[in-house]
What does this fold into?
Amino acid sequence: PPRRHYIAFHAGLSNHVKDLPHNYKLVFDKIYLNQGKAYDPHTGVFTCPNDGIYVFHWTILTVAGKYFYADYMLNGNVVGRSHPNAATTNRAASSSVVLQLKKGDKTWIEPKGSLTGQHAYAGWSFYSGYRL
It folds into this structure.
């Protein structure tokens, strides 16, 4: 039988990030798993190594009085969103996307717009993905 090449990653934020500029790629740099090395922990970009169906999940926690509008990007186009809004207490938001990708497609998470007050909390914010 043909050998299957597994593609899967799970990463977290090792530092709090806040007040990020527009088009900033959120870098989840604490690697728990990076089978196939398709996720780059230096740029925050997942580059599709093989055509297929992929599933991505992310959770972002923000602290009281802050928020984080997150756009999930595929080759520069929004294909998913999440929005933790913590008016009076810490809040998290999670979201997922299932995408048909082609080799070379790129996905990442970025803040929506350039808004002050955005805050993603380290140790409680994660990003993962895998090929079905």
Summary: The radius of gyration is 15 Å. Residues 39 and 46 are 4 Å apart (CA to CA). The chain has no helices and 14 strands.
